TrEMBL record:
Signal sequence segment: none
Name of the protein this chain belongs to: Glutamate-1-semialdehyde 2,1-aminomutase
Gene transcribed to yield this protein: hemL
Catalytic reactions on record: (S)-4-amino-5-oxopentanoate = 5-aminolevulinate
Record-stated family: Belongs to the class-III pyridoxal-phosphate-dependent aminotransferase family. HemL subfamily.
PANTHER family membership: GLUTAMATE-1-SEMIALDEHYDE 2,1-AMINOMUTASE, GLUTAMATE-1-SEMIALDEHYDE 2,1-AMINOMUTASE 1, CHLOROPLASTIC-RELATED
Pathways per UniProt: Porphyrin-containing compound metabolism; protoporphyrin-IX biosynthesis; 5-aminolevulinate from L-glutamyl-tRNA(Glu): step 2/2
Organism: Pontibacter saemangeumensis
NCBIfam families associated with the record: hemL, PRK00062.1
InterPro entries: 4pyrrol_synth_GluAld_NH2Trfase, Aminotrans_3, Aminotrans_3_PPA_site, PyrdxlP-dep_Trfase, PyrdxlP-dep_Trfase_major, PyrdxlP-dep_Trfase_small
Length: 431
């Protein structure tokens, strides 16, 4: 059992001045029990908390720390940029360079606009789609999460479902009515929605690989089917690659599946850990954005020079080192193979979904292909498993409805430690 008195004390204090004691709900450990650990530092594969505990980190700041924490290549770029001022509120060379880099790497992006978070990216993308098409409605998928913009807090995944509020109060009926929802991987349901709302749907937005109901991959033909439908009906197809962009491949999930959306939203990795998001797409759509076009979107700190430096360092590294993706694939495949062997040894048969360096275990025998099947997972068992792993120094996402992210800092020795902790925790959690 890990000592956590300093974290517990801080969490108690935090309740007085921060809602729920945290600055983003899923961090509060509500779904798994116990108190969150307050972190002090991180290096490579490890996090260190206020009580001096070390954890093997499988969240990696929800994805961006693809090279592990405090990666030299990113830190050096940030340190070099700091003396030149933290913010200008005026354009810089770096913004041009990172835009060119993103355009060269992501198939769907001909022009890109930097923002400060994934939430801003998705909110802005649907505004552009609405402005461009002159239509109001959007289609999203149950269990997909696109940040906390009003239009997306309908059947939302991630922290929203973890805390039992997939449809948030505070979203007006008008906004909610403009968001239509369909089950993930169900093309037929989308066809029916589009037919019933003919000429009214501006955009279909989805995570091309869903990571916010646990990890769920698109079934054969699903993404292409959406592409074909959008082409036929003049709907803007938006891939939200805030999690998958640059993580699954230099060109994200769209590169892997060979389906090119009209617009893409990005985040996390393009800031190398700094608060950054971006949206981009076809020239005609992006030229609708102010000041080139009429759709207004702005940001005082957008294109921040420190964040751009961190992002440039990260993206350049990934572009120049394609072997990174093979390494991540090998490491994560070994971790998952070890988990499968453990289950066999214990006579258990839970579902593990994986693609590249993202994976989730669901405590169900069912194949998990959408939100309904994700919800068949035994979340109480997940909570016990989570805490068991935490006590063994493995830091997982504190919710069933999240994906895990592996970094290149995970060595073979750490894979072995992880597999051993998984074996013991699977056993312990059955009780
Ligand atoms: C797919 C996806 N879209 C959008 C967001 C929102 O990003 P942010 O938390 O940076 O606002 C997230 C993560 O939170 C995400 O996983
Ligand atoms: N699923 C979210 C990010 O991808 C979780 C992060 C958060 O909401 O704080």
């Amino acid at each position: 059992m890990k000592e956590a008195s300093n974290s517990n004390e801080l969490f108690k204090r935090a309740q007085h001045s921060i809602p729920g004691g945290v600055n983003s709900p899923v961090r509060a450990f509500r779904a798994v029990g116990g108190n969150p650990r307050f972190m002090v530092s991180a290096k490579g594969p490890y996090l260190y908390d206020e009580d001096g505990n070390q954890y093997l980190d499988l969240i990696n700041s929800w994805g961006p720390m693809i090279l592990g924490h405090a990666a030299e290549v990113v830190n050096e770029a940030v340190q070099k940029a700091i003396p030149n001022s933290l913010s200008f509120g005026a354009p810089t060379r770096k913004e041009v360079e990172i835009a060119e880099l993103i355009v060269s790497m992501v198939p769907s992006i001909e022009k890109v606009r930097m923002v400060n978070s994934g939430t801003e990216a998705t909110m802005s993308a649907i505004r552009v789609a609405r402005g461009y098409t002159g239509r109001d409605k959007i289609i999203k998928f149950e269990g997909c999460y696109h940040g906390h913009g009003d239009s997306f807090l309908i059947s939302a995944g991630s922290g929203a479902i973890t805390l039992g509020v997939p449809d948030s109060p505070g979203v007006t009926k008008g906004t909610a009515n403009d968001t239509l929802t369909a089950p993930y991987n169900n093309l037929e349901a989308v066809n029916i929605l589009v037919e019933a709302n003919k000429g009214q749907v501006a955009a279909i937005i989805l995570e091309p690989v869903a990571g916010n109901m646990g990890l769920v991959t698109p079934q054969q033909g699903f993404l292409q089917g959406l592409r074909d439908l959008c082409d036929k009906e003049g709907i803007v197809l938006i891939f939200d690659e805030v999690m998958t962009g640059f993580r699954l491949a230099p060109g994200g999930a769209q590169e892997i599946y060979g389906v090119t959306p009209d617009m893409s939203t990005l985040g996390k990795i393009i800031g190398g850990g700094m608060p950054v998001g971006a949206y981009g797409g076809k020239r005609a759509l992006m030229d609708y954005v102010s000041p080139a076009g009429p759709v207004y979107q702005a940001g005082t700190l957008s294109g921040n020079p420190i964040a751009m430096s961190a992002g440039m360092a990260m993206l350049n590294f990934l572009k120049d080192h394609p072997e990174t993706y093979q390494q991540l694939e090998r490491t994560t495949a070994s971790m998952v193979a070890g988990m499968q062997q453990n289950m066999q040894q214990l006579g258990l048969s839970y579902t593990i979904n994986r693609i590249g360096s993202m994976f989730s275990i669901f405590f169900t025998k069912e194949q998990v292909v959408d939100f309904e099947t994700a919800k068949t997972s035994d979340t109480a068992l997940f909570g016990r498993y989570f805490n068991s792993m935490l006590n063994r120094g493995i830091y997982l996402a504190p919710s069933q409805y999240e994906a895990l992210f592996v970094s290149t800092a995970v060595t073979e020795e750490l894979v072995e430690q992880y597999i051993q902790a998984n074996l013991e925790s699977l056993k312990e959690a059955q009780a």
